Every structure is written in C-alpha cells, then in structure tokens.
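Hi there,

I know you've been waiting on this one. I reran it after we fixed the sequence typo, so this is the corrected version. Both the input and the resulting structure follow.
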Amino acid sequence: MATEDTVRAGTRTGADAPAGTGIPQGTGIPQGTGIPQGTGTRDLRQLITYALVGGSGVLLDLGAFLLLYNVVGLHEQVANVLSTSLGITNNFVLNALFTFGKRDRLLLRYLRFYAVGLTGIALTFVLLAVFSRGLGIDPNLVKAGSLPLVLVFQFALNRKWSFA
C-alpha cells in the first residue's frame, strides 16, 4: 500500500490509483507501461501555476508600461522593453520556484527564459509598430491586447526549453 506522500506525488496508477493521480481509476494501466505517473495532474497544476505567475507578470509588465509611457513619458518601444524585462524577471523567479521547481543551472535557465521573453518583446514590437504607428490605435490598447498571445506562445517555449 502506498503512503500518503507517494499518492500525492502521483506514483500509483491503474486500478489502485486514487482519483486525481492522472490515470482514472479502474483503467487497469499497470506500472511500467511507459505512461508517466501522475502526468495529467502535474501538467494541469503546472499550467494553472504558470498562468497565475504569468498573470502577476502581466500585471507588473502592464503597470510598468503604463507608468513609463504615460507618466515618465518614455517612447512606447523603450517603455515596452523595460516593462517586459521586469515582467520576464518576475516570472522567471516565480516559475523557477513554484511552477517547475527547478533550482539548478539558474543562470542558463534565466538566459533561456529571457531569450524566450525576447520573442515576446519582438512580437509586441511588431504589433505596436503595425497597430499603433501604422493604424493609429492607442499603444495602451495594443500592449494590453498583445499580452495573452505572447503568454501562450512563451509557455510552450519555456516548458520545452527553459525548464526542460
């Protein structure tokens, strides 16, 4: 019989697996089948945590952008780079601690995470150039609208590369 810690870690599968371990009860999937134990639950937990961390980064990024652009008077592209860099750093620290639980090779992971973040800066740069400069849409709206697209794109890259 597995201990409570073992069950929480998702190490039981198949007919003896309690609910929430990633393999439905009664499926009869035996140990050693190559199916990672507790994968579904872990993936869902990671996605939710990543989204919450991302939300904090979005709020920090957007708040810093609004402050730097509207109050300080920086050019929208400069404000975007600075605010996004602040959000990236916030998200790296929180994701390393809470989402992926990785505390090794932090400098390499941060550089990879930041490289992924640069793709977000580049994507937002293009969107600001097209929609704000080209079409005259308020940069505040363009920045806010770009954030969900950037978040989804970066989750996939960070999970497979930065925190693999």
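Quick highlight: Residues 39-72 form the longest helix (34 residues).

Best,
R. S.
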